Protein 1
Amino acid sequence: MLNAILANGKVIAATAVAMLMLGVGYAFGARKVDSLEAQIAAIKREGDDASAKLKKSQDEIAKALKDRDAQYAKQAEQLRAEAELKAKDLSAALAGANQRVASLQAKVSVVDARRAKLIADQEKASAAERQRLQEQIDALDREKRTLVAAVDANQCLALAVPEAVISPLVVRK
Amino acid sequence: MNRILAGLLPIAFSACTPMAVPVVKEALKCDAPASLLAACAEPGAIKPGITFGEMIEVSARDRDGFKACALRHKALAELVASCSDSIDKYNAEIREINARNAKQ
């Protein structure tokens, strides 16, 4: 009986000590805790705010990237379509060089014929009339020079670029 | 007795448990789309004996390649500037937060 009472007394004493320690621990741990907790809570709020700002900024960047990429894709497609069209036109223009040369040479022949007739007319004309015919001949000469230059330019397309000029640009493997 | 004390000690010191405060460490990412990171096309090859006509074709293709490259470069430069603005703005906000925290 006495032993049981003593045993219970030990448990009660141990519980009391433990409660005392709990109280002391709490009091020790709770020193200035309220203000510290408030500070920590404020810091946590700021941290959460910063996280939200990070997400917002990242979302803004993602949207800017997506929008600019879409805009670029549209512009690139437009550029590609224009380039394709121009390449076709250029190819056709280069392939049509011989035809243009023939057409220009036919015009040169017409000019030559007209000039020859004016020269013949000049021989029979009066001095004043001769002057007028000479002006027409001069105009035909100017027209012919233009036509011949155009013929030369078209014929030039099929000529090789002089080696001295092109060799600095040639990539040799 | 000792076992009871050992069991009660963690409860007694529970008031000392630290509170986790989040720290923002991540930096903003600005990954440009692959389409804008593509390399520019090489200039067309010029072979010995090339004609003036062929040279014009090579030049035309190079011009197209240059335009495409310039367009891509412009888009990429604008993106970098846009990202830089966003990062500057974000950093300014973070500096404000840090300044407020430092006062507390």
Protein 2
Amino acid sequence: MNWSLFFDLTVSGLTLGSLYALIALGYSLVYGILKLLNFAHGDVYMIGAFLGWYALHALGGPMNPTFTGAVVLLLMFIVAMLGCGVLGVAIERFAYRPLRNAPRIAPLISALGVSIFLQNSALLIFGAAFRDYDTFDLIGVKTYSIGQLFFSVPQLLTVVAAIGLMIALTVFVARSRLGKAMRSTSFDREAASMMGIDVDRVISVTFFIGSALAGAAGVMFALVFGQIYHFMGFIAGLKGFTAAVIGGIGSIPGAMVGGLIVGLAESYATGYLPQGSTFQNLYVFALLILVILVRPSGLFGKAAISKV
Amino acid sequence: MRRRRATAVAALLALGAALAVVAGAYATTERAAAPTAQTGSDSALIKCGKTRTIGFMAPVTGPAASIGIQQVHWAQYYVSTYNKTHKKTKMKLQTEDTQLGAPTGTAEALKGAQALAGSPNVLGVVGPAGSNEIVGVTKSLMDGGLAWVSGSSTRTSLTTDGTRTGYMFRTVPPDAIQGPTAANYIIKVLKYTRVYIIDDQETYSTGLADEVQSKLRAAGVTVGRDGVSQQQSDFSSLIAKIARDTQLVYIPWQLTPKGIAFGNQMKAAGKGSIKLMGADGLFDSTFAAVGSHVYDTNFPLNPKSKIIAGFKKGHGGDGEYFGAPTYAATQVVATAIDRACKKGTATRASVRAAIRSTNIPAAQSLIGVALRFNRNGDLSTAKKFGLYKSNGTVFVPIPG
């Protein structure tokens, strides 16, 4: 057993998995409340990466930042999360709310339309060129090792931040008044409305939170892997969705576990399977099919009970 | 039950989309059909006039824009020099942006080729930049009767498979020369025995990677081989596969930003001491800035050329060497158009014939040798590639 390879793949898989988990959370939250697959979510993640890039350059750029690296990073996250949160609310307000009572296929098509709209808008506004985060210049990328386990600061930051955000969200949904309203709306939107819950507001908040998490994931991705471009949200969105389905769409811990499973599967497939780096997507989506066949509601999902 | 069905349908949709991405990444444009019978544009008489039009295809925007813009600058430099020195005739470029490396594949290049083929004033074409683009635009340009001269496409079979004979020419030597140049340096000068090769799954890259791999293996070098999509920015799992005792990673990629990301992620993974070697597609100062452990190969140039000195003077001292052979390509097309237009009119066929019989002496060529083509459309005079090493900021030629 080549332990060095195993540890390297594990660190890589956990990093990727944390990013997928954050994206999966957005899918899960929205699906939990609206039973809607928001296929534009991956593109919100892409917009988050670009907002972080613009924030970085508005603050002097990676070579001459106005503040210390840590402060610049914090501000980048705030800008990306706020911007994406507002974008998510706007998408819900203009693309999904008018279709709330339409057949379920209508908002699904609308979501695909929003996805393409965002991709092409990004191409128009940001151009087709790749943009560099220059993480090395901004914070320096030292590699630390514990035995044969090597990891860098952005990788550690990504995993820790993802877990932190996940815990915060779980506590928020479980303990806060608004979280309780979200759970009620998820359980029965009509009944929640009759109990005095402002359902529209709850849905807007849900979109805000899910999109803000996608924005954070976009910045984290760029910090770890260095580059962003207008099409980056497509495949990441698909993998985030896969993570949500594997974990059990609608479940917060499911999104986290699903994300880690997808990330690790991708990483191990690349490392151990024949032509792994070439066919890594094939292996990941084969895993999706397997889980759907064996456990259609996902690992943490509950099978829906329907009265007949 | 409905929820379960909806989830399954959505999962299938996602799978379909993923397979489409995979299929797109592997769809080869090799199927570009052989040219059909020529249209009227091949023999149509075109009034040359005072200002003659050269079609120009380059990645002006998109992922490869950093090298594409160098080709733009060099083509423009030739045209402006020509226009200053010729009083009776002028040249102009009709530029088509190919967006090399964009997710849409060669679609933009194809649109550009169709626009040039349909443009009544265009007599010959400079470009496109990428080998895969050339495969994609072959039919359109040939149907339009247009010859094209590329200043950067190096895939060997483009000129040797007979598909484009008489239409395609290039002012750079093919990978059959570039590959051995890189391999010989690794074997004989660096004397490395453990090398990892990663192609970017495009025709240009896989061809060059195969070439180097076979030479290295024949010399007894232990070679690991992998491939990664041009659309991927996350190389962490791939980097994990590269053993820490690897001496050099060879990445003959087309997109400089990807090369930079790979180099930086290698450093982040604690593998920054492993040497990196790119090919002409990564010959850019931004890639050189990854570190002084980076090597590259690029087109042969004459460092003493007055043309290069003149260009550098007008571009802040930066030679933008990747684009230099595009100057030669523009020179070839412009010279051929002038020869074909001696009587005031020309056909695209006569321009093709004039390009085929090009003979520009070494003194007027920035690559240091005369510009003459063999039957296939390759330079009959250029026999080697140049080797470069980064000094941490730019690539510096390695003597020899």
